[in-house]
Each structure stands twice: as C-alpha cells, then as structure tokens.
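thread: overnight batch results

M.L. [08:02]
morning all. the overnight job finished for the chain we discussed friday. pasting input first so we're all looking at the same thing
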Amino acid sequence: MDENTIYQLSLFGLTRQEATLYITLLSNPSMTGYELAKRTGISKSNTYGSLTGLVSKGAAYIATEEATRYLAVGIEEFCKNRIRVMEEAKKELSHISFQNSNAEGYITIIGRQNILNKIRTMLEVTTERVYLSLNSELISPFLPELQVLVDRGIKVVVITDRNISMKGATLYYSDRVDDKIRIIVDSVEVISGLLDKNCLYSKNENLFSIFKDMLTNEIELIKRKGSPQE
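M.L. [08:03]
and the structure it wrote out:
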C-alpha cells in the first residue's frame, strides 16, 4: 500500500486502517467486510470498525443487498465534502480569540509540511513587500503564490541561484545561495532554517534587522560582481 497515499488521506481525517480499506474499495465495485478483511489482512473486528468510520466520514456507502456490501465514494467527492465540513467548522470556531504570547519571541517550527504551511501563511498576509533568499528548488513551489503577490502590487525581491520566471519581481542571481530558507515579510516577520529539519520564526525587531542587513549586503555583493538581475 502506498504510504504517501495513506498519509494524504490521513489529512482528510482517515485512520491508517480506514485509508487502507478506502483505497481497496476505490479499485473494486463493492465488497463485503469479510472480503475486505481477507484482501487487506486487517482483522475482521478492526475491518468492521473501520468501515463504520468510513461510512460516518462520508468515504463509503452501504449497498443494501442480501449481504451488506460497501462501495467507495469517489475521491473527488469525498475530498470536497471533507473540505466543506472543515470550512464550516472553521466558521463555527471563529469566535474563539487567540492571543499570541510568542509574537516577539523566537519559535522553532519543526517538520517540512509545517514549515511550508507557515511560509504560505506569511505570504497570504503580506501587504507591502517580501524578500526571499531561496535556491531554485526551494522557491519553485511558491512561484504561483509569489506571482499573485506581484500582480497585486506587492514588492517581491528574490535572491536565487538559477533563472526563474516571475514577471514584475526583482530577481538577483548568485551561485552562493544554499539550501537554507531566508524570508522577510512586511518588515515584520522572519523565517530562516532548513526545510527538512527546522526553521526559526519570529517577529522580533532585532532579528529582522539582522536579516535585513544580511540580505541587503548579499544584494550589494551581487550588484558589484555584475551578476544577472531583472
């Protein structure tokens, strides 16, 4: 069973066993609990418990026949329904106030997906400018979002190692750009570190000043060397 597929389904609220059964159902017209247990190797008791979970979460239907059979809800329909449920739940939770006591401190963000999520959140709330020092591989997933910012009139300055396409952004190229993330948003938020390890995030003014000076010096060095820029 593809571990990545199971992980992706877990993001939509399915347990490992539920995801395994769902993937199996997707490739079959309909199956009984006994057949699913035999096909997946999951015990009968766990199979029936997980099937109940699949039905309650909208990933499977029960077909009324002589023997109870289960059939999968299409992946697109299932995902859209789960997203709809989460969006409605988010509205219900919007009344809860949040006080960020670490706004001026230093926060360590661990895990690739958590770091990507934080960067995207930072970009979403950008109102004036964003400075990024990222190699071409790291910046690639963010190019569509950065282009949207440019189109909105946000100043986007990028230091990277290879030619990238981003109309309207200020681009600097340097072979000294490594695999470290360095991003400043609106002169307020800073994030730095390694995507596959951890990153330091802060709104601390002193840290911002350090990173601003570092990126400014890097840009000046590129200009002096006469490196390509747009």
